[in-house]
Automatic annotation (TrEMBL):
This is Thymidine kinase. Its EC number is 2.7.1.21. It comes from the Bacteria. Belongs to the thymidine kinase family. One of its GO terms (biological process) is thymidine metabolic process. It catalyses: thymidine + ATP = dTMP + ADP + H(+). One of its GO terms (cellular component) is cytosol. The keyword Lipid biosynthesis does not apply. Substrate binds at residues 170-173, 188.
Length: 223
């Protein structure tokens, strides 16, 4: 029986890597698949992992119809055994319905990968539909960590180093590099729920701990 599987985790938890590994494992066993993505950091029609692997992909636009695409391919004589769908949080709910139909009526496996919630902690409509329809929802095993060491469960957005909770839902970007000298104009940081609620990013935690450091009163000035 074909299945619709949803693999989810925070940003930087290894979803795109797993998408490429999944494609590889099925491909080397002779199965034929199609890879889809949208709004990848590496640019249009590319599935990229932070581990350096990339693969050509079909860019999923707003009007893209998975059902139509697959039926057209099959009637044109192509064989398709599975679909790998990255950045699935950005897909429209109707596109997730099309994927479920592809699984049920054409017996084609669908492996979808995406984050669950946006920078405001609100479910992406595409991910919500995946949770509603998937045969299995799998949380990535490699845990991304908050700066405090707890498991990161939420994605924070920063603008010039400050965490924000208002703005456009879709802003393509990467997790901040802690060794960078300047914060990016728009960046992301994964946090545990508590630190997301308190807007306590790593940079802010560092600043707060420096401010609350006791002054060295036992050192006479000038020494
Ligand atoms: N320099 C590195 N060495 C080893 N692993 C890394 C390195 N940089 C990133 N990673 C790993 O790559 C994974 C992120 O991969 P990616 O597939 O791009 O994530 P996602 O698609 O979930 O955002 C994480 O599991 C992270 O631990
Ligand atoms: C939280 C959040 C993220 N995004 C963007 C940022 C990245 O381009 C992708 C997530 O990609 P990853 O492979 O999982 O790192 O989504 C966004 O547009 N809006 C958000 O709220």
């Amino acid at each position: 029986m074909a299945e619709l599987q949803f693999f989810t985790g925070t940003m930087d938890s290894g979803k795109s890597t797993l998408a490429l590994q999944t494609n590889h494992n099925h491909h080397v066993r002779g199965r034929i698949g199609r890879i889809f993505t949208t709004h990848d950091r590496a640019g249009a029609a590319t599935l990229s992992s932070r581990l350096g692997l990339t693969h050509d992909a079909i860019e999923v636009g707003g009007g893209f119809d998975f059902w139509r695409y697959v039926v057209d391919q099959l009637t044109g004589g192509a064989r398709i055994d599975y679909l790998v769908c990255d950045e699935a949080q950005f897909y429209e709910p109707s596109q997730i319905d099309q994927l479920a139909r592809v699984v049920d009526e054409l017996q084609i496996d669908v492996f979808a990968f995406g984050i669950l919630t946006d920078f405001r902690t609100v479910l992406f409509p595409g991910s919500a539909r995946l949770v509603e329809l998937a045969d299995r929802t799998n949380v990535l095993q490699v845990e991304a960590l908050c700066w405090c060491g707890r498991r990161a469960t939420h994605n924070a957005r920063t603008e010039n180093g400050e965490m924000v909770t208002e703005g456009e839902v879709i802003v393509v970007g990467d997790v901040e590099d802690p060794s960078a000298q300047q914060p990016p104009e728009v960046g992301y940081e994964v946090l545990c729920r508590q630190h997301h609620r308190r807007r306590m990013t790593a940079a802010r935690a560092r600043a707060v701990s420096l401010v609350s450091e006791p002054l060295p009163f036992d050192q006479p000035f000038g020494e």
